[in-house]
Structures are given as structure tokens and as C-alpha cells.
Amino acid sequence: MKRLLTEPFLFAFDAMSKEKFFTQEYIPLLKKLKGDEKGNFGKLSPQGMIEHMSDAFGNAYGRIHQALHTPENLVPRYREFALSDKGFKENTPNAYMGETPPPFRHASISEAIKELEGEIKAFFDFYKANTGTKKLNPFFGEFNYEDWLHLLHKHANHHLKQFNLI
Predict the structure, then answer these.
(1) DSSP string computed for 23-59
(2) Biggest alpha carbon distance in the chain?
(3) b or e along 53-75 (b: 16 or more beta carbons within 10 Å of the residue's beta carbon)?
(4) Burial class for 140, CB neighbours closer than 10 Å (0-12, 13-18, 19+)
(5) H-helix or E-strand containing 136?
(6) Which is nearest to 54 in space by CA: 12, 104, 128?
(7) Model-level pTM?
(8) Domain limits at 161?
(9) Taking 80 as the threshold, does the pLDDT of residue 128 lie above it?
(10) How many domains does the chain have?
């Protein structure tokens, strides 16, 4: 008799592949950037995008705290999108980013990548030590580890496409 795979098993496998992506594949892709590439869309430079992703991880494990920006009545619809397999549209606005990108925090793209590596490790370490914890996403509401992992993967892929890395 053929065994049917259950939804939780598939999701767990999906989470494992996303963990592998962040721990083994993501940083090597970013290290291909020289820093002077022009994105296919958006205002961020390669280094600006990497620092932006560091902040996304920082928000996911609580280093950065931002208030809920989305009106409460829209959170369920926004959350549904965030947890779907639909990608972000090019030039999706971010209410926490101004019209011009913020100044760099680091002197080089390699320093920005080192910071991002630390943020990724801190994210995984936090949720390993705090199983079941939820942290507020300022656009999509309360997220647990699996929710954050899915959204961060979607977000990372959006920016990898921006710079032709995938």
C-alpha cells in the first residue's frame, strides 16, 4: 500500500530546504556581487540590499522592533499573501524605507555580507532556543519561525532576482 505524505511533512521538508538555502547557498550567491551592479528594479545597490536583508533578519528574531504598519483589518489578507508562493512584485514599496536608500552602515560590501551572515546565524539560534516564539512583522502580523523562514526566503529570492543572481 502506498503511503500518502501529509501536509505537515511536506511543509517540514520545505522548511528544511529553506534552512539549507540560508545556511549553505545564499551567502555564496551574494559574494558574486562586486557592488557596482545596477539592479533590474528598485533603488537599492547591492550593498544596500544586503544591509536591508540584515535588517529583515534582525526584525525576524527581534533585534529590530517595528510597530504594526498595516491596518488591523487588512492583516489577514496581507498575511495570506506573505505565506503564499506568490513572489513580490518589482518595485514593491516598503513604508519603512524612504524615497532614497539609507546611507551604508559598512565601509564595504564584504563587511555588509559578514553582518548578514551574523544575522542569519542569530535568527536560527534565537528560534532554536525559543521554540514556539512569535515576533511581529510590521506588515503581516505575528509570525512564528516557519512563517518568518518562508517570508525571508521569498524576500531573499526577490532581491536575488533584482541582481540576476537566480
Answers:
(1) IIIHHHHHTT--S-PPPSSSS--HHHHHHHHHHHHHH
(2) 60
(3) bbbbbbbbbeebeeeeebeeeeb
(4) buried
(5) strand 135-137
(6) 104
(7) 0.89
(8) 44-88+103-166
(9) yes
(10) 1
In a domain, 126, yes or no: yes
What pLDDT shows up at residue 154? 96
Total count of residues recorded for the chain = 166
Query: For residue 137, what is the enclosing H or E element?
Result: strand 135-137
- The helix (H) or strand (E) run that includes residue 143 is strand 141-143
- Cell 526577490 belongs to 158
- Cell, residue 96: 519603512
Q: Which amino acid is at 82?
A: A
Question: Poorest-confidence range of 91-100, 104-113, 131-140?
Answer: 91-100
**How large is the average pLDDT for residues 62-82?**
96
Give the end-to-end CA distance of the chain in Å, rounded to a whole number.
40
| Domain CATH code at residue 162 | 1.20.120
